[in-house]
Amino acid sequence: MTDPLYLPLLGLLYAAALILYRLTLHPLAKFPGPKLAAATKWFEFYYDCVKGGGGLFSQEVDRMHERYGPIVRINPHEIHASDGKWLDTLYPGPGPVCIFYFRVEKSAVTEHEEAFGTVDHYIHRQRRAAVKTFVSKKTIQTVQPSIRSTVELLCREFDRFATSRETFECGTFFLAWATDSVAKYLENDTYGLLENAHRRREWQETISQVVELTPLVKQFPCHAVCAESSGMAYAGCFAEDESGVADA
C-alpha cells in the first residue's frame, strides 16, 4: 500500500521542479521581472484579488516597468511591454511570422478558441481574415456619419445637463455612447442607452459588476461558467422598457 506521505512529497517535488523550470528553462526566463511573479501566478492573484480589495495588478505592473524597464515578465506565461516602438515587433503585419501571442485561458467562454485566443500563427491569420474587413480603415471611414450621429446625440445630452445645471456622471454617458456606437455599426441600430436613463444606469451597473468579477475569472477560469450562465441577467436591459421610467 502506498504511503500517504508520498503524495504531498510528490506534490512538493513537482512544484519545485515547475518553479525551477519557469525561472531557468522557460522561453520567457530571459525577460526581467520579479522572480516571484515568474514562478507563480499567485503573485498576480494577490494584487488582483486580495491586496486593497483587489484590482491592483495593473498598478503593480506599472511599478515593474519603473524598476525593470519597458518589457517585463508579469507572470509565468506573459510579458508586458510599455514601449510603443515594440508594436512593430508584436504586430509585424502580413509579412513575417509573429512569435508572440495572446494567451487566453481555457474556459466555457473560450472553449472554441476564437481568433483572439488562437496561438498558431497561420490558423490565427485565417480566422482573422474572416473579420478583418469589419475593422479596416476603409470600412471605418464609411461608417463615420453613423458614429457622428451618436456623438451629436451625446453632445445634445451634455448640453441639456449644462442648461439645467444638473450633475451627471460622464463615465456612464461615455459607456453608453461607446455601446450605442458599436451596436449601430454592427447591427445598424442602437440600444437606446443615450436616450434612456433607466437603461443607461442598468448597463453601467452591469459593466461595473463584470469589471469586479474579471480579476477572479482571470485567476480561476472555471468561474467563467457562472459568469456565462448569468449573462442573460443583464441582457434584459436591452429589452423593451416596460417600467415607465422617464428619462432624466
Give helix and strand order, one letter per element, not per position: HHHHEEHHHHHHHH
User: Number of helix segments?
Assistant: 12
Structural class: mainly alpha
Shape: extended
Average the pLDDT over all residues and give the rounded result: 79
Count of DSSP strands? 2
Proportion of residues in helical segments: 55-70%
| Amino-to-carboxy terminus distance | 73 Å
Residue windows where pLDDT falls under 50 for at least 5 positions: 106-111, 231-237, 242-248
Which features would summarize this protein structure in a list?
about 250 residues, mainly alpha, two-stranded antiparallel ribbon, 12 helices, disordered C terminus
Give a verbal description of the structure.
- With 248 residues, this protein is mainly α.
- 55% of the residues lie in helices and 4% in strands.
- It contains twelve helices and two strands; from the N terminus they run ααααββαααααααα.
- Strands 1-2 form a two-stranded antiparallel ribbon.
- β1 and β2 (78-81) form a beta hairpin.
- α8 (144-164) runs antiparallel to α9 and α9 (170-187) crosses α10 (197-219).
- It is extended.
